[in-house]
Amino acid sequence: MSFLDPLQDGITHINVYSKGKTELGQFLSNFWADPFKRYIETEDGPFRTIEGYWYWLSCKNDRLRHTAGLESKNLGRHLGAVDWLMDADFQRKILKAITTKVLMYPRMTDALRRCDLVHYYVYGNSATEVKEGLWIMAYLDHLRQELRNY
């Protein structure tokens, strides 16, 4: 992924990453939590973050409803949840929750309409390609296209 320059995040592209340089990139990360503690309403009830919901789907421990960021991942792993459930119902629920989150914030919805998204991790000044979860990025691109039609 050497063609992506992390220094261009927010200029030529938006990096969907909790440590990305843009508000939109951070917002689209599963780690993002509303600073006012507004919860995302899923078909399984409210969750502070998509990451908390992600791990809850594996172990159903309600402590995950209130976690944010790396705390969600660490608690989920501690509770025995798996990192990657790959069944269709899991993916459907996560994508539906992502859509709900995006639509809760009209300013972010509008920003998503107008950008190009990528996902990579940054170590120093170099980009490292993400190999898992490409279905989420494909969906975000689909959602972006759908939003442009409205």
* Separation, N- and C-terminal Cα atoms: 32 Å
Strand order of the largest sheet: 1-4
The coarse overall form would be globular
Write the CATH architecture name: Orthogonal Bundle
SS-derived structural category: alpha+beta
Mean pLDDT level: 92
Number of helices: 6
Provide a short characterization of the protein structure.
By secondary structure, this protein is an alpha+beta fold. It is built from six helices and six strands. The chain starts with 13 loop residues before the first strand and ends with a helix.
Describe, in plain words, how this protein is organized in 3D:
- 43% of the residues lie in helices and 12% in strands.
- The chain has 6 helices and 6 strands; from the N terminus they run E-H-E-E-H-H-H-H-E-E-E-H.
- The model has no long low-confidence stretch (mean pLDDT 92).
- Strand 5 (120-123) and strand 6 (126-129) form a beta hairpin.
- It has a two-stranded parallel ribbon with strand order 1-4.
- The chain has a single domain (6-148), classed as Tetracycline Repressor, domain 2.
- It has 150 residues and is α+β, with helices and mostly antiparallel strands.
- The chain has helices spanning 23-28, 50-59, 70-78, 88-104, 106-113, 134-148; strands at residues 14-15, 40-42, 45-47, 117-118, 120-123, 126-129.
- Helix 2 packs antiparallel against helix 4 (88-104) and helix 5 packs across helix 6 (134-148).
Question: Which SSEs are present, and which pair or pack?
Answer:
Blueprint: E1 14-15, H1 23-28, E2 40-42, E3 45-47, H2 50-59, H3 70-78, H4 88-104, H5 106-113, E4 117-118, E5 120-123, E6 126-129, H6 134-148
Parallel strand pairs: 1-4
Antiparallel strand pairs: 2-3, 5-6
